[in-house]
């Protein structure tokens, strides 16, 4: 029994006329009659009562029709799901992100991806850069948004966002009323900073910026997440140099000031395993590329 036999049967059952069914199937009437008889012979029961004027389903034919229609519907669903999967439009993606991306590019990316590919379930994890590299290597996540550089060649990555640095100050700080702040004026301040291993690229940039102004920052408190750093600044325990997008985190007791000196841009990169052939991952990467370059 072939799939075309079932389709011939369903079409004839719907038309109940050999001529009309043959025309709909784009075949001649005699081959259609022959195929139906072959199907009946294989099944071992009649599907149709035939007279010169009428074609009617038998009782067995009616039951068989309902089952075949269900099979064909399930087959069509299977084909559709297979096609969507091959295009990366169904499935699941586990995505990691550093906390600061929640205040710049991540909401925009997720909104546009969801509009383009509503059939993929997203599982989001707020992780530091080093945690994401471990999760990717272990296969626990699919795509990440991290602070470069990345030295492991098992990953593919590309820059998708760049921004400046700003100073976060307690609102009661003596420098809080200035429009801009020179890094030199922070030489005697206590700094709130994250451990270097969490994001070496950003850490080194902040340290280098201070050293170029003639001092090494006095780190009085470490914190893992950017929002925690800002909260500690609000508690008047020190100052911090943070990515400019943190200004979107409106924390009572904190003000943000632009830096007078020219500062290098800090970067967000998208990262995934170079060996990952998943069409779902590739679809996500392509969409992010499109919107980040647009």
Describe the structure.
With 294 residues, this protein is α/β, with parallel strands linked by helices. It folds into three domains: 84 residues, Winged helix-like DNA-binding domain superfamily/Winged helix DNA-binding domain (Arc Repressor Mutant, subunit A), CATH 1.10.10; 98 residues, D-Maltodextrin-Binding Protein, domain 2 (3-Layer(aba) Sandwich), CATH 3.40.190; 100 residues, Periplasmic binding protein-like II (D-Maltodextrin-Binding Protein, domain 2), CATH 3.40.190. The chain contains nine helices and 13 strands. It has a five-stranded mixed β-sheet, with helices on both faces. Strands 8-12-7-11 form a four-stranded mixed β-sheet, covered by helices on one side. A two-stranded antiparallel ribbon has the order 1-2. β3, α5 and β4 form a beta-alpha-beta unit. α5 crosses α9. The longest helix is centred in the first third of the chain and has 28 residues. The radius of gyration is 32 Å and the shape is rod-shaped. This is LysR family transcriptional regulator. Pfam families: HTH_1, LysR_substrate.
